Amino acid sequence: MTQGLARALGGIGATHAPTKSLNNHIGVPLTLTRLPEQTRFAVFEIGMNHADEIRPLTRLVAPEAAIVTTIGPVHLENFDSVEGIADAKAEIFEGLVPGGPAIINADNPYALRLTKAAAQLGAPVWYFGEGEACAARLRAMETDGRRTRIAIEIEGRLRHVTVEGIGAHWGYAAAAILLGAKALGADVDLCAAALDGFGALDGRGAARELRLPGGGSFMLVDESYNANPMSMAAAIKALAARPTGLGGRRIAVIGDMLELGPDENALHAALAQDVAAARIDLVFCAGARSRHLWEALAPSQRGAFAPSANALAPALIEAIRPGDVVMAKSSNGSRISFVVEELTRLAQSQGGQE
Q1: Burial of residue 84, with CB atoms counted within 10 A of its CB: 0-12 exposed, 13-18 middle, 19 or more buried
Q2: How far apart are CA 30 and CA 33, in angstroms?
Q3: Spatial distance between the Cα atoms of 289 and 265, rounded to a whole number of angstroms
Q4: Residue 166 has what DSSP assignment?
Q5: Strand ranges in 2-47 using DSSP code E only, listed in sequence order
């Protein structure tokens, strides 16, 4: 989202944004101190894993618009409920300049809670989503298994954007980006044109075709930067939409999701339902929490289990064959990125990407 918004705004003026997820009490001030004098737009990512973390940061930034993309069961070890997470994210509205809109995903179950929080502060609310009440309304999404063409209606006009990624979350992100641009007074048409062709970043869905030692190739989808139950389910669903090569399979490599609190084992096991619905061929699991997913899988879907990503890599490398599509995802601290690195090294030893 941050890099996408920066790309859209950068098409019409000098734009400043963090290059990484500098979204905490260190990263946000650092992004501010690096703000060039000649800047037309600035994009800040403000994150949290506990209450009262966003509040001082949003007041420091004083945004002219604030976007909450979604609310879900993340960082639950620090909250009693998902409602608490919604309230913590709603803190971002407290820093809005007068008249600055709170931009909210209308299709999220906690949209009303966020709306009430914004209204209490006197902030106007702009929605994005599929409903008629949305200022940025998703009208269509089509995918060819590698990219997604999105139609978004704003003020009665359709804008079309094609992104190098698949999954419904891309449509919502594009709608939020264009609505955010509108809130800043940017030309929405120019921003849509600048956003066109934007692709998933390393660790956040980037896909590449890699060579195998015995000949042929497979596709690696790198989702290794972060994970929670919502994003994991979305990644599994997106994997199901990717075409395989001749005789290929869809393989999910899943590491632990962190900071989920007392229900963490059940939340991992519940992913087996997403795997079954998506008809994923094989699942490789790494980590103590992911063992609960492994045990909940149908026997035919079990690839291999290991206590760590490092220990899992050899079994996965041995299993991959030409035409496969491999998606790797976990929380960053679970280091499923090691598997991505090992697969990339393997390909480089054979001459790299195709």
Answers
A1: middle
A2: 5
A3: 6
A4: -
A5: 15-16, 41-42
Q: What is the pLDDT of residues 191-220, one digit of tens each?
A: 999 999 998 888 889 999 999 988 899 999
Q: Which amino acid appears at position 137 of this protein?
A: R
**Nearest-CA neighbor of 325 among 200, 208, 175, 173?**
208
Quick one: tokens of 161? 């954007």
Length of the chain: 354
Q: Using DSSP, state whether 45 is helix, strand or coil.
A: coil
Going by the DSSP 8-state scheme, the letter that residue 327 receives in this structure is E
**Structure-token match 């098409």, residue found:** 11
DSSP 98-146: TTPPEEEETTSTTHHHHHHHHHHTT--EEEEESSTT-SEEEEEEEE-SS
Tell me which residue has tokens 């963090």: 18
Comparing 2-195 with 206-348, is the CATH topology the same? no
Q: Which residues contact 37 (CB under 8 A, 6 or more apart)?
A: none
**Dihedral angle computed from the Cα positions of residues 336, 342, 348 and 354, in that order, rounded to the nearest 10 degrees:** -40
- Taking the model in full, what pTM does it have? 0.91
Determine phi and psi for 45, rounding to 5 degrees.
-105, 125
Residue pair 3/45 in contact by the 8 Å Cβ criterion: no
Instruction: Give the tokens for residue 135.
Output: 């200022």
The CATH H-level (homologous superfamily) assignment of domain 2-195 is Mur-like, catalytic domain (3.40.1190.10)
| 352's tokens | 């790299």
Residue 242, SS3?
A: coil
* Domain residue spans of the chain: 2-195, 206-348
Kindly report the number of other CB atoms within 10 A of residue 185's CB atom. Answer: 10
> Which residues in the chain land under pLDDT 50?
none
Give the distance between the most distant pair of CA atoms in the chain. Answer: 63
The architecture CATH gives domain 206-348 = Alpha-Beta Complex (3.90)
Burial of 67 (0-12, 13-18, 19+ CB in 10 A): buried
Residue 152 CB coordination number (10 Å): 27
Please answer whether residues 99 and 66 qualify as being in contact, where contact means their C-beta atoms are separated by less than 8 angstroms: no
Beta-bridged to residue 164, according to DSSP, are: 199
Q: 344: closest CA among 209, 230, 241? A: 209
